[in-house]
Each structure stands twice: as C-alpha cells, then as structure tokens.
C-alpha cells in the first residue's frame, strides 16, 4: 500500500508544468489534490514514471465569476468552491453536488478539476459538468483548447485530456432565469460512493410551464448519462410544487396538477430506462435502476419547485 | 529517483527530512520524524486514522505526499496538548466521555474534531455527524464519540465544571481516572 517509485516534479509556474508534462508524455501524470490518484498509486493500479505536482501553482487556485458562469481553476479545492458564495449564487448545483462529494476532510484536499479529469462515472462533478454543458480547458505549450463536457468524458476513468496536456480550469455555466436544480443520491453511508444519484435541471416560462427538463445519472454507466425528458413534461405547469407558484400560476396552462404529476413519473421512468447499471457487491443492477427512477422523480420535482420559486421572486 | 529535501513545521518545530518522492506524509511523520501518534489504517483515505492538520485544515496524511507538504505546517495528535502536557479540551472530553476504547482511530478523531470545533464551536447534531463521517471507529459504536464532541464544545465554551454532558454532576474526570472505568 505504498506508491510505486516515480520521478517527482514540483513546477513553480504553469509554463514550467506544461513543459515538464510535455517532456514526460504518456509517462506523465498530474497530481493536484491526490484524493483519487494517491489511492490508485497506493494500490498500485497506476504507475506513472513522472508525477507532476501542481500544488505550488497558486495561480490556478481560483474561483471566478465569468460572464455566463463560474470558472474554477485546477487548484481550487472542493471545500473552497463549496464555500464560495459567488459560485453558489451563479450556479447552485455546484454546492448541492459538492456536499455529496466524500467527506469534509477529503474535500479539504481534493480539487474540482482533478475530479473532472479523473472522470469517475460514480462521481458527482463529472455529472454536473455534463448536465450543465460546461467545459474543461486543456493546455500544452503553445496551445489551449476548451473541450465541451459532451466530448470530455470518453469512458470510465478516461477523459479527452491527452498525454502532455494540463487541465488548467473548468467552466460551469450559470443557472438561467426561471431555472432550478437539485441533486439526490442514495449511499450506504453518507460520503460513500452513491449506489445511484440523479441531478436535474428544469426551466420554466413566465407562465410556469416547463420549457426544458434534463437529468443526469451517476453510477449508471461508463460515463455520466444525460437524459432530456422535456417531452414528458413540456408545457405542463408545476402548480402544486410551491406556494409562490400556486398563487402565480392560477389560471395559467391547461394541464392540471394530476397530469403534471404523471408527467414527472413518466420522465423518471424514462431516465431509469436509459441507465446501464451493473451488479456489484454493493447493489444489484435492478436495485440501482429502481433507485435511479425514485431519485430522478425526486430531483426533477425539486428542481421544478426551485425554478417556480425563482419565477415567483421575479414577479 | 533522487531524494527530495523537505522542511515541515510539525507541532511548531521545524523538521527536515530527505525523502523519496513517493513517501507518504503519514510515513514521513512516523518513520522519518519518529512521530508515531499518527496512525495508519487503510492507506486509501477511507478510515481517517491518519488525519492530521495541514496548515490548520484536517487532511488525510496517507493521501498526501511528504514532498507536497514541503514548507507547510503540520499538527499531529502529539501537538494538540498544551506546552505543559495539559490535554486539550477535545482530548479531555474524549477521556471523560469514554470516546475511545482501543485508541487506534483516536488520533484521527482528535485532529478532525479539533478543527471541527475551531470552525464551528456550537455544531448541530447533524453537523457533528457530518464532521465525523470520514472517521471510522470499530470499537465504540460512535455514541460516546458524539458525546465527546458535545462535551468538548462545552469545555471550549468555558462550561467545563459540571461533569460530562448527560452524566451526574460531580468532579470532572481526568485521563488518569479512566482506567477505573469498570470498577
């Protein structure tokens, strides 16, 4: 349970880090928080020839509001992003998700960008990036590219980051007006890998009718699975989901609360139908699918309620 | 693989060591610096026994390289007591409330709880459980650990002389008394 030998590098600037990584090529691996990589090293599941420790690159320890979203630097720890009022105001799903990531002590060290590059399909942050349609910025000497989430996660523990590339930041789009989010999980113990988890993003129009609804599942396949369920609920109104909405929505829309409720249940079934969980020691595939269905309905309803609250505050 | 010279300020004392890049902070503390109070359980971040404070924040020393910690401040369980050896309020509370049995997990709990109560002197029940959730104990069933956190919060708040929370009032036990627990 000790890491295999490697050549340790501690660059003092991003430019130096990119040079070292470029020279190391496929033998190079980036160490940021280490909360996933060091267990893999300790268990000898990975054995990089060169480890490039980016913990001295304080220029990457950033959480910044940008037009349209939040950019998180590669050295921003989970705990810092979780506490960031600016990040929570721009995109509440970040804090909702980060509270589900492992334990507080792990979040003191682990980084958001590191979690994305690690690309564990059971992890929360890849799911968030996929649901929101964010991107990861990859840099090598003389070249920078932004990879959209849809193309970033290529398989279990595999991302589009190529040998020699350094993930310098990630961009999470802001929550739009009349939108809401939620993240629900079931785990054996708080902080464990979730048996199933669903995050949802719902947007409404001024008349409280659903204009878009999407969900993303964790532990449900080789990569985060995003399912668009707009077709099941479009045009219906979450009239029953919040006090603010009830008063505001009176007389709007033609669908009653009953039809709306049926719509969410159908949407949740559609989500569960799209996941490909596997049997393992913790749960059967059938149980994970069942959980996904229950959590999807819960998350979608809560996201819709949150969106309705936002409509209420805008009136 | 060349060794790396690291300088750590451990419990207020500047310590130096020459370590391979792969040396875990937990092993550096125990083997290179002789501070065996930090315990090593699972070595993949699950059990929490190796928790130390890195620049004041609790972290897993088994998931941190010693080389990464170069230049930083570490507090281990050996550094929690006062300069004269007086147990810290958290240590005193664990002794009073029987928050340990075999003691293997205790250094991790003590470091975690020390930071928890520093940041949140009056945590709710839920916040205590969330704060402790990353530390495993195989002996106590956690009831007395949770009670120890409550008691430590009392002690820190200066309400220390009424006996442990929920216990009959009486003289406060010190760690030296706990051996008579079964008597």
TrEMBL record, chain A:
Instruction: Give the signal peptide, or none.
Output: none
Write down a Pfam family by its short name: FAD_binding_5
Can the keyword Oxidoreductase be found in this entry's annotation? yes
Keyword terms = FAD, Flavoprotein, Oxidoreductase
Residues in FAD-binding PCMH-type domain copies: 1-177
InterPro entries membership: CO_DH_flav_C, CO_DH_flav_C_dom_sf, Diverse_Substr_Oxidored, FAD-bd_PCMH, FAD-bd_PCMH-like_sf, FAD-bd_PCMH_sub1, FAD-bd_PCMH_sub2, Mopterin_DH_FAD-bd
**Could you tell me what this protein is called?**
Carbon monoxide dehydrogenase
Specify the species. Streptosporangium pseudovulgare
TrEMBL record, chain B:
- Pfam family of this protein, just one? Fer2_2
Q: Does the keyword Transmembrane helix apply?
A: no
* Region annotation Disordered: where it falls in the sequence: 158-183
Task: Keyword check for Iron, yes or no.
Answer: yes
Q: What keyword terms does UniProt attach to this protein?
A: 2Fe-2S, Iron, Iron-sulfur, Metal-binding, Oxidoreductase
- This protein's source sits in the domain of life called Bacteria
Domain 2Fe-2S ferredoxin-type stretches: 4-80
Cited InterPro entries: 2Fe-2S-bd (IPR002888), 2Fe-2S-bd_dom_sf (IPR036884), 2Fe-2S_ferredoxin-like_sf (IPR036010), 2Fe-2S_ferredoxin-type (IPR001041), Beta-grasp_dom_sf (IPR012675), Diverse_Oxidoreductases (IPR051452)
**PANTHER family noted in UniProt:** OXIDOREDUCTASE WITH IRON-SULFUR SUBUNIT
Protein name stated in the entry: (2Fe-2S)-binding protein
Q: Which organism is it from?
A: Streptosporangium pseudovulgare
């Amino acid at each position: 349970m000790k890491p295999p030998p490697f050549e340790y590098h501690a660059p003092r600037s991003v430019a130096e880090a990119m040079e070292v990584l470029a020279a190391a090529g496929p033998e190079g691996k980036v160490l940021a928080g280490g909360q996933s990589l060091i267990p893999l090293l300790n268990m000898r599941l990975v054995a990089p020839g060169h480890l490039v420790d980016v913990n001295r690159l304080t220029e990457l320890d950033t959480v910044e509001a940008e037009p349209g979203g939040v950019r998180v630097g590669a050295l921003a720890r989970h705990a810092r992003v979780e506490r960031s009022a600016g990040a929570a105001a721009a995109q509440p799903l970040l804090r909702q998700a980060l509270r589900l990531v492992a334990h507080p002590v792990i979040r003191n060290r682990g980084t958001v960008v590191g979690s994305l590059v690690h690309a564990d399909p059971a992890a929360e942050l890849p799911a968030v990036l996929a649901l929101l349609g964010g991107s990861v910025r990859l840099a090598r000497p003389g070249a920078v590219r932004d990879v959209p989430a849809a193309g970033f996660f290529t398989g279990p523990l595999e991302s589009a980051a190529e040998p020699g590339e350094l993930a310098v930041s990630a961009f999470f789009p802001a929550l739009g007006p009349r939108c809401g989010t939620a993240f629900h999980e079931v785990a054996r113990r708080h902080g464990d890998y979730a048996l199933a988890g669903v995050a949802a993003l719902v947007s409404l129009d001024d008349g409280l009718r659903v204009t878009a609804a999407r969900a993303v599942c964790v532990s449900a396949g080789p990569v985060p699975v995003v399912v668009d369920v707009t077709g099941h609920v479009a045009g219906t109104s979450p009239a029953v989901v919040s006090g603010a909405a009830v008063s505001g929505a009176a007389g709007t829309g033609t669908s009653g609360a009953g039809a709306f409720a049926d719509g969410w249940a159908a949407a949740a079934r559609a989500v569960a139908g799209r996941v490909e969980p596997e049997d393992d020691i913790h749960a059967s595939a059938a149980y994970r699918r069942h959980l996904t269905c229950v959590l999807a309905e819960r998350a979608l309803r809560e996201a819709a309620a949150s969106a309705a609250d936002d409509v209420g505050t805008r009136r | 693989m060349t060794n790396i010279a690291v300088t750590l300020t451990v419990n207020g004392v500047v310590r130096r060591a020459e370590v391979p890049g792969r040396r875990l902070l937990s092993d550096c503390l125990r083997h290179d610096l002789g501070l065996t109070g930090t315990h090593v359980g699972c070595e993949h971040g699950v059990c929490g026994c190796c928790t130390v404070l890195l620049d004041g924040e609790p972290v897993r020393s088994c998931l941190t390289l010693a080389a990464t910690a170069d230049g930083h401040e570490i507090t281990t369980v050996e550094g929690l007591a006062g300069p004269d050896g007086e147990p810290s309020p958290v240590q005193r509370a664990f002794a009073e409330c029987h928050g340990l049995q075999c003691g293997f997990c205790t250094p991790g709990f003590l470091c975690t709880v020390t930071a928890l109560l520093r940041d949140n002197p009056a945590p709710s029940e839920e916040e205590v459980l969330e704060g402790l959730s990353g530390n495993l104990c195989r002996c106590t069933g956690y009831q007395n650990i949770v009670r120890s956190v409550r008691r430590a919060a009392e002690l820190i708040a200066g309400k220390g002389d009424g006996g442990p929370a929920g216990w009959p009032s009486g003289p406060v036990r010190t760690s030296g008394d706990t051996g008579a627990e079964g008597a």
